Amino acid sequence: MVDLFLDTSVIINREFSDNQEKIIEIENFLKEKNKLISTYVCMELNRTVLADAETLKTYLCDCMNLEEIWERIEALGNSTRMKHRLGLIFHRITEDVSDLYEARRIMEMWLRHYPSIILKEINVIPSKTDCEQGQYMPDYGCRGIKSLCRVPENVEKNKGLLKILQIELVQDVNKDRGKLDICWSLDEIINNPERTKENPRNCFNVGDILIALDVPDNFTLISSDKDFFLICEVLRISFYYIDP
Questions:
Q1: Chain CA centroid to CA 15, Å
Q2: Which helix (H) or strand (E) element contains residue 75?
Q3: What's the pLDDT at 125?
Q4: Which 3 state secondary structure label does DSSP give 123?
C-alpha cells in the first residue's frame, strides 16, 4: 500500500471543489492508500475551513436570502483566500437547495459532523510541534506565548535545514514576492525560535514548512500548493503535486 501524507489543499479540494471531475480524480488517486495527516494539519484546517464555515453560518443567520449571502462573499475582495474558501463552502451546501432555511440546516449538520467529514478515511498522527489547536476539534485559536506547543524546539532542532531553505527562498523572492513574509518569518525564528510563539503570525507564515517536517520517513507529501516543490527538495521529502 502506498503511504501518503496529505496537505490541507488536497483535503479542501476533495471536499469542496466546484469541479466534480476534480473531486472524482482526487478520490480515485487516494483510494486504497494509507493516508495520514498530522495534528498541525488539523490546526490549519480548523483555522481556515472551520473558521470560514462558522463565518458562513453567521451569514446564513443574518441574511434574508441566498443571493444576499453571495453578495457579501463577493464584497470581500478579489484575491483573498477566505473569499475563495467561503465560495467553495457556500457552493457545496447550496448545490442542491435554493431555500435559505434548508441551507442553514445543511450548514449546521455539516458543522456538527465536521471532523468525520473532513477527515474521512484519514489517520491523524501527533505533530512534532505539539500544536494545541490541532489536538482536538473544533478549535482555531492560538494562545501565543501562553501556548504549550513545541514549535520553538522544532525550529531549533531543524535550524540547519531552515537556513538552507531560507537561502533558496530569498533567491526566489524576485520571481514571487509572496514569499517575502515567509523569508522574514524564517529570519526571525531562526535567530530566535521563541518568536514563533511570541508572534503567532510567524507560525502561520512557515506553516507549510512545519507540515513538511511532520512527514514520516518513506511517505510522499501530496499537495496542490506549488510552494512544496522547493520545501520538499531542500528537506529531501518525496512530493507529488495535484493540480487544483
A1: 13
A2: none
A3: 94
A4: strand
